[in-house]
User: Which sequence fits this backbone?
């Protein structure tokens, strides 16, 4: 049974988030059991876009603050990194409020732009992946995802957030190359997550995103933080909170098929609150559109990214 914590957190008031994160970590044995003084720790929030925190498209900075605070208290050396779809990570982090938090704790914001090949956790899916050197060389990885509806994968959280550890445009390439069958792509994302293999996931489900995620949806209060050492288990608990259709749990289904992690509630030692006490009965799930990028859409996306990141031009 995999210990996973579910705790209440009704809003992003600093003291409330700090207490919730502290309780969640204590319920699974404490962060001090996982991280030592001097460890180089890569903190991976969801930094998809530079939208303000209130849009619920990114991990709320207060949750990142609470995680960084505990890492620094333990004497670790945290760094914050991601590979956003558009723009440099530094500018995205400024827009969504995470950069200010990182400066507070002296944690550098790092761009995932230095690829290294690593063997896949599931070579039957793909033999090798490319991850960023910052991830590969970290002593410990803390995954800090956001719970969101996702028009291509149903919903996303801990497993999908790790896909951002793949630098550059390789993410879009796999959408095209593996997107002819949704579960084929889901299996690749699951295999990648367990190749990164974070030591801890602390998921922001205080305010989730419903309807048309991952960027254009509607903020929806859920009032929860979920923490655990297994990414699939964290996602399984969040699925229990928002109750997506079983067939829309593409990443959990892929983890189950591949034997990765613990994607089933009946194999999780849930600590803290119960699913029944906190489930949201009327969460609005997206209508799935499939994962494949058309060649034209991919080309336009890459061109827009070039204009923004290389030339500083914002297309209208």
Assistant:
């Amino acid at each position: 049974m995999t210990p996973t914590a579910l705790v209440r957190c009704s809003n992003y008031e600093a003291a409330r988030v700090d207490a919730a994160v502290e309780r969640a970590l204590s319920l699974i044995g404490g962060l001090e059991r996982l991280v030592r003084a001097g460890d180089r720790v890569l903190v991976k929030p969801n930094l998809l876009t530079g939208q303000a925190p209130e849009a619920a498209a990114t991990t709320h900075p207060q949750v990142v603050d609470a995680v960084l605070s505990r890492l620094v208290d333990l004497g670790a050396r945290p760094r914050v990194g991601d590979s956003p779809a558009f723009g440099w990570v530094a500018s995205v982090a400024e827009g969504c409020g995470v950069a200010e938090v990182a400066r507070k704790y002296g944690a550098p914001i790092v761009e995932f732009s230095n690829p290294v090949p690593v063997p896949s956790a599931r070579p039957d899916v793909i033999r090798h992946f490319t991850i960023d050197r910052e991830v590969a060389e970290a002593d410990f990885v803390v995954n800090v995802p956001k719970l969101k509806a996702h028009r291509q994968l149903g919903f996303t959280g801990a497993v999908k957030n790790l896909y951002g550890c793949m630098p550059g445009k390789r993410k879009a390439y796999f959408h095209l190359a593996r997107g002819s069958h949704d579960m084929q792509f889901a299996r690749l994302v699951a295999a990648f997550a367990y190749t990164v293999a974070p030591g801890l996931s602390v998921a922001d489900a205080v305010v989730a995103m419903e309807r048309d995620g991952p960027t254009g949806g509607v903020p929806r209060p859920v009032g929860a933080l979920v923490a655990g050492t297994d990414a699939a288990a964290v996602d399984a608990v969040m699925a229990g909170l928002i109750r997506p259709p079983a067939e829309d749990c593409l990443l959990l289904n892929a983890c189950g098929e591949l034997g990765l992690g613990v994607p089933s509630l009946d194999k999780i030692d849930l600590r803290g609150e119960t699913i029944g006490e906190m489930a949201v009965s009327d969460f609005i799930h997206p209508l799935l559109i499939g994962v494949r990028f058309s060649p034209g859409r991919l080309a336009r996306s890459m061109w827009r990214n070039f204009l923004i990141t290389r030339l500083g031009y914002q297309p209208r």
Residues 293-316 have pLDDT under 50 and may be disordered.
